[in-house]
Automatic annotation (TrEMBL):
It comes from Curtobacterium citreum. Pfam families: Glycos_transf_2. This is Glycosyltransferase. It is an enzyme of class 2 (transferase). InterPro entries: Glyco_trans_2-like, Nucleotide-diphossugar_trans.
Amino acid sequence: MAEAKGLGRVARRLARPFRGPEKPLTVTDRLDRWARRIAEFSVLDRAYLEAQTGRTFDSDVEAIAFYVHNDGQRGLSLHPLIEHEWMREHQPVPAMSWYDALHQEGPELFQTGPLFDAGVYAASVPEADRPASTLDALRDFLRNATDATTLPVPPGRRGHAPTWGAARDAAVSAARAFAHAQHRTRRRYRATWDGPEVAEALARYPRGVARRDAEQPLVSIVMPVYRRADVVGAAIASVRAQQHANWELLVVDDGSGDETADVVRRIAADEPRVRLVERENGGAGAARNTGLAAVRGDFVAFLDADNTWRPEHLSAALAGLLETDGPGVHTGVRMIGANNADDSTAPAETYRGEDGTLDDLLAGNFIDLNALVVRRDVAAAAGPFDETLRRWIDWEWLLRIGKRSGVPAYVPVIGVDYDNVRDPRRLSSAQPASWQEVALARHRIDWDALADAVPARDAELVSVVVPVFRDWTMTRRAVDAVLHAADHEGDRVEVVLIDNGSPRSVSAVLGAWFGDEPRVLLQREDRNRNFGLGSDLGLARSTGGTVVMLNNDTEVTTGWLRPLVAALDDPTVLGAQPLLVYPDGVVQAAGTVFGGDKVLPWHFLGDHPRYDASRALAGAGTDAARLGAAGGRRFSAITAAAAAFRAVDLIRWHGFDPVFANGLEDVDLCLRALAASPDGSAFAVVPSSVVVHHESRTPGRDDARVDNRRVFDERWRGRYPAADAAGHYEAAGLRWLGVEPGLPKGHAVMVRSSRPIVVRDWAGAAGAAGVSGAVGASGAAGAAGLRIAVKHDGTRVADVSALVTALEAAGHSVQVDLPTSWYRGSSGLDDVTVLVAGGSGTGVPSFVPQPGARNVVWLAAGQVVADGDFAEVVSADAGAERVVRAL
């Protein structure tokens, strides 16, 4: 065989000069060649791919071709046992594509997904027939497996191993649900109008046309207007041009204060069907409600002052509505311009309009209020527009109509020309996009029903709610850690995962890995609902009497849960958080502190050594700040990255406010909770509970930072909690001097970022350390009680351990810093740095000595450093005690 391959290569090399120059391969050529090779794998499950895409394919070749041309955008999978992202973490060369990893046919047997481990399968096959590669193992399994065959799952997967038939059915069902979600959330704008001509469309409604012409129903039109003197005339003219002439137009001037009302008044003088209603400024929702209260027709329509109707709009809408006596209809919309985009280019022209279900409407609005005509009784049943919303007011009202009366039907006629060009006068466009989640939350969560069901909750069960977006790797680690700790401690937990509209692979992997673990519930949302609404949806799904909110980038430690739950035994404790630390041991958050009005709160002791938190949370300080005999401190707010609450309280407070998009929603919750609770209530930080917080990699996490600050400041301006930072820092032996203000992030936000200025409280630090002695000229306490940072790179672990033990025995405070924390923000408070140089042959790490501190390096054998780089160099043959004496 090898000889034949060699002869083939020689023949191809000899023939190459006679073939002429080779044409460069196009992207399509490469993809087609890839498709042909994938077909040779014989691992396609066509029905599974069809379920993901909502399509059918005539052949495997067609299916694979579709896959290779679309996988980059869709994240598709060819088989329930192949998950490309999972393979990337388990195949020998992570940088390889999944195709190359299988094509190599190397001896390494690896996992192709959370349900198939080639090594596990191969071990179950007699040695004589044992597959030699991962691809061979996969193909051999598929050839021989029946629906009742147990899958060779990877080690560590919880629950029993499922059968192939059950796993495939679950995968196809999940894929089909994903395809339906993709359909609901698809982009609903089209570049060209693909509907019928008006006459053809109206021919579908013969009964409606006849009733419209015979009955001539009155249509009441509500037009809110605010400072639109330049365009309101054109909008009114489009109403006067309607083919259906029996209408009344109520123009509601929302306190414009300019010439807008005069323009309308002049038109109304010549047109008795136009009425002007004037009111104080209250927003579009209030103006529409004023108009709705004055309508007299059997049908209601809406038109904004910056848009126009085509003459056939009302005529076509009434025909469609009277055909079936449905709740309402909407016509098609032609949109000019690209709001929130670069309008300096030529205006874009797009079209929208289609039918949909209530699930489609919940996934996103596809009915424009300007295109809507509803029965008056339907509008009355829905109630007034919500005047507390600043955006998506019309969508929330349409959702009420859809739930009470049914979703309005689509009449395929262009009825509206919509001005979508960016305009600074559109006040709603300046509001954060998170108002969409606020509007939706009212139709996804019934707080009254949740409150009524509180007695049925399992008081001994702890529900851990974990919102997820795009990352299954950290999530799997986080959930496994929670379950491992619960198994070790005997705690009863359930984990509620809310997948916030992640790509297909996230829920596919998590569902397969935890599919047989009854303590894990997975709910996938059509879109990203952010941390706030995602957590609230998890709360609604939970069943425990205690609810823990947990970021998916955390990793709990053994013994973390019981101290948090125990803290809630005190009725004055509204919620409790653990000590959050980074993987390198540096503190991430030990509570939330305030510095006064218009100073954004910050994480207490963020980026500080662990010993600062141990002192501050050990119960030192005033009695008002203490938390029982077990230690801990009380705060006005805590972080929800990891926090325990009573379910009844969270429901009473209506959870997080979704207007905050991944920032400040936890502080807002705490302040609302304090305002609704008796005096003396507070939140707790429990030092005996420790959770590691890995650095978040969630895309777009900080996109709404400026909007969050603006919303927070508008809500709490003048009502910030009193500055409490000084007392908390004092308990740690530190002194808070104030804040260093940051630069404004957009001048519309009337609050600036700030960074705490913290210095050593020398007397307090010495007392907290249990040492005495005068403070020398350098500012450090005498012979003991120094703050010492031991810097090392992970080598010489035994030497580092011995050094830390000796330093602490001498009364010093020691923080061991890995390279990620060598230059942590609190390093300026350290008196001494000790660089433990790497093992023999590794060289001296490139640590830049710290200004203002005494810098010592402890060398390994064969290492040297330049003179003057460090205050003192300790030789390789010196022990830990010698280093301590040098200090």
